[in-house]
Design brief:
By secondary structure, this protein is an all-alpha fold. The chain has two helices and no strands.
Length: 80
């Protein structure tokens, strides 16, 4: 019967070095939720503006404006 090493590994095995910690995510989950919600609201506003005006430039400006206004609004709703 073999006796394990003091570190708990069985005799004859080489202990593996600890793996390095994983890097943090690029964006926190809250930031992803805020940005995706703002983009969806902007696309919805652009679609409604396009249906109303039948003009792509108006729809793009409306969608972009709503997206930029929705970012701080949704951030305030999500909270800290």
């Amino acid at each position: 019967m073999s006796v394990p090493n003091p570190d708990g590994t069985p005799n004859g095995s080489v202990p593996q070095p600890p793996s390095p910690p994983s890097p943090p995510p690029l964006l926190p989950l809250r930031a992803v939720v805020v940005l995706m919600t703002a983009i969806i609201l902007g696309l919805l506003a652009a679609g409604i503006a396009f249906l109303g005006a039948r003009d792509l430039a108006t729809a793009a400006l409306c969608g972009g404006g709503v997206t930029l206004l929705a970012i701080p609004a949704v951030h305030g709703l999500v909270g800290h």
